Amino acid sequence: MRFDAILFDLDGTLTASEEGITNSVRYAFEKMGVPSPDASVLRRFIGPPLVGAFMEFGGMTEEEARRATEYYRERFREIGWRENRVYVGIPEMLMALKAQGVRLAVASSKPQVFVEKILKHFGLAPFFESVAAVTMENTDADKSSLIRRAIPQGLDFSRACMVGDRCFDMEAAKKTGLYAVGAAYGYGSREELFSSGADAVANGVPELRDILLGGSMPRAKGRFVTFEGLDGCGKSTQLRKTQEYLTERGWETLVSREPGGCGISERVREILLDVGSEGMSAQCEALLYAAARAEHVRNVIEPALQAGKIVLCDRFLDSSIAYQGYGRELGEDFVRQINESAVHGLEPDRTFLFELPEETAKSRVLSGETAPDRLEAESMDFFARVRAGYQNIALRDMRRVMCVDAKRDIESVFQSVLTGIDQLLETM
Ligand code: TYD
Q1: pTM score above 0.85
Q2: For a substitution probing ligand 1, which of 280, 375, 390 has the most ligand atoms within 8 Å of its CB?
Q3: Is the shortest distance between the CB of 266 and ligand 1 below 6 Å?
Q4: How far is it, in rounded angstroms, from Cα 129 to Cα 127?
Q5: What's the pLDDT score for residue 216?
Q6: DSSP state letter for 299
């Protein structure tokens, strides 16, 4: 359907505003002398009116919540509003909609001054003919009344659409008779959007563009994400947290690992990691990793990607380049050559490289509960070469490989991972 007018929510729909909002909420909790909730609770402040959110998620009375909101604004007004970015593809989409004569507006539960300032700062203001937001004095305005205000005069509501990332947007759209399109790349899950009445849900901006411009829905295709780094870098923990995050938001994931991931490859893994395989030649080792990969790619990774899943894999080709190419000094070219048919043309869409000095990595492995396997028992020189190998890979492929400082605590590392994951979801 072609719409005459489209209203957009701001946070989580046009811009990724998490950083500024959660930092300002944290600041408000500190000022109130209340311990700040953890990251997953902080994210729930994105979207709903703030006073209600402080009451619901912060256990405050209305009077306290109003004070907390004042503190929030104190920081948001100065710094928070700028800790924000426009989702990739949004300006191009808005331009295309305008070129088709669609009338565009913004309906947001943020104070009008902030909305206007953000739209102007990020170059989005010229696309919109009106902005309906709340006043500083009355922040509780319900979204349906904002929608009614945002719709251009005399327009048929049934030919208008509301795009938003939370249940509040979908519910208000339905209440006012608008078509409701959910932006699942924002801060609500697909379940939340569908169960609150979404007529369609876009996984990323490209899909949103197709829905709004009247094209057909693209076929879902998965994404391939790999987690790399020295033994002991914490990648497996981050992988698990990433899976939880994606599952919570309604994405279908598949978790796997290399060497391994399927029957035959897990058996090859046993041979490779068994300390009893001591003395194995570097060539044999490299070929076994490639053999396990050939099986894993065809039997596990490719089918999952074709089914539209997000595949999260603990290690892939980069491990062979770093460990066998650099660690064993077989050379990168040789390793790439023997892996060419194994990877079957597959390349990760995103790789997280968890960076850690080899000394720290090694001491983490040695302090673990299990005895080091054959690779983990290697010398410090070996790991120094592996690390240098990883750094070379990252330097050459900065678009794909995101380096993450793994010296920090689990939650801080995870926040960096989320930035990369959110960017990836935008492309779906
Ligand atoms: P990993 O699964 O990270 O070990 P763990 O489960 O004990 O944390 O990886 C197994 C080992 O295999 C690790 O030391 C790195 C090594 N490896 C290579 O040398 N080359 C490769 O291609 C792969 C995939 C792993």
Answers
A1: no
A2: 375
A3: no
A4: 7
A5: 43
A6: I
Query: Strand order of the sheet with strand 160-164?
Result: 130-134, 103-111, 5-8, 160-164, 179-183, 200-202
DSSP 407: T
From the CA of 191, how far away is ligand 1's center (Å)? Answer: 36
- The predicted pLDDT at position 215 comes to 52
Nearest protein Cα to ligand 1, atom 22: 320
Q: How far apart are CA 322 and CA 331, in angstroms?
A: 9
Give 247 Cα–ligand 1 centroid separation in angstroms: 26
Q: What is the pLDDT of residue 303?
A: 92
Whether the CB of 361 sits within 6 Å of ligand 1: no
Give the residue whose CA is nearest to atom 1 of ligand 1.
Answer: 231
pLDDT at 75: 96
Most ligand 1 atoms within 8 A of CB, residue of 230, 319, 369 to mutate: 319
The tokens for 12 are 């989580």
Task: Tell me the pLDDT tens digit for each residue of 7-32.
Answer: 999 999 999 999 999 999 999 999 99
| Ligand 1 centroid – CA 312 distance (Å) | 15
Give exposure, 366-400, as e/b (b: 16+ Cβ within 10 Å): eeeeeebbbbbebeeebbbbbbebbbebbeeeeeb
Mean pLDDT score, 47-72:
94
